[in-house]
Specification:
Blueprint: H1 24-33, H2 37-50, H3 59-64
Bound molecules: iron/sulfur cluster (SF4).
Length: 83
């Protein structure tokens, strides 16, 4: 059975902020994506979207505070205390 694109390995996933010099945010995204599976992909995407390492709070807390209710990933975004 052919895998959906989201289920393929995330090795090499660069998010929407590709830079030659890898910053801390990209390292966090890479670490999340390497876990594999859809949960990891959503976590990595939301981190890429919402995390600002210059703002107070972990990537997860910042994503939890996302209020983009129209985003298709909104109900699946990572939150404290559960997936
Ligand atoms: S749920 Fe929020 S943080 Fe996640 S991708 Fe959508 S807008 Fe970005």
């Amino acid at each position: 059975m052919k895998k959906a694109p989201q289920e393929k390995s995330m090795q090499g996933y660069q998010g929407s902020h590709s830079h030659d010099s890898r910053n801390n945010k990209q390292k966090v995204i890479d670490r999340l994506a390497k876990k594999g599976g859809l949960r990891a992909l959503v976590d990595a995407k939301c981190c890429d979207c919402a995390y600002d390492e210059l703002v107070t709070g972990t990537w997860r807390k910042q994503v939890e505070n996302c209020f983009s209710v129209d985003c298709p990933l909104f109900s699946a975004r990572p939150k404290f205390g559960g997936a």
